[in-house]
Amino acid sequence: MPLNPQFKALLDQMAAAGGTPLIEMPVAEARAMYRAMQPQSDIAVGSVQDRKVPGPGSDIPVRIYTPQGRGPFPMLMNFHGGGWVIGDLDTADYQCRELCRSVGCVVVSVDYRLAPEHKFPAAADDCYAATQWAAANAKQINGDASRLAVGGDSAGGNLAAVVSQMARDKNGPKLVFQLLVYPVTNADFSTVSYRDNADGYLLTKTSMEWFWNHYAPGAKDRANPYASPARAASLKSLPPALTLTAEFDPLRDEGEAYAAALKKAGVASECVRYDGLIHGFFAMANVVPAAKPGMEKAAAALRRAFGG
User: What is the mean pLDDT of the chain?
Assistant: First the structure.
């Protein structure tokens, strides 16, 4: 399918503007640029609260979105994208508000430690610790610990898959669902989608190499299933999953392969590819009509998982 016209116009505009590529920027500048790129949102929810929760290295900032109504509400842990290097609570604000409103759930957005200052497994450990906190303190945030899901996009999808495995392996919180939006699942740059979409579609092969080099530069860490969840010895007994992928995305094939591996392991696993779209579409559902079905699909799947 051809590239969606709105995304083509966006990519053409970015190419014409030029500028320093992300991988040539100091990390602080890359973070500022990524933050500036994110669409703003005025979606109203019941309340938004910033607080800190205990973590393995230091307290972890979280942002808690609560829907209107009485509760207790189901809960979604949201892990932002950005290659474990860029991204924060603000860059994930739109999708957290949208899912809070449309699903009717508390969303706990996690500002995990970033690389290269904090390499693997810092991000995964923070996300798991925040999930443990939410499960143990659900009543405090008007949540229902028996209806707890994890989700994220790109590196956040990686962390959602990893936290699902950690919860299983460590007898941690029982999760009812994992939402994996174009997730990073394997440190492997040899797939067809990496070959066909290496350049020109926002996320590039070289930028993914840059992200991995900051987060998990060593082969041993990259082989760890808590970095590359596709390399787990077993995917049995994991929570049901919805995986969303984009046609013009280097990460397409590894996301789809992980979804297939989950299904083979007996996990209820659905995978939907959005033809004509690029990496990052999920965060643009409020400005690009072609991206809305992905957000609607995610919200519907979460409502079902929560029993709604």
Answer: 97
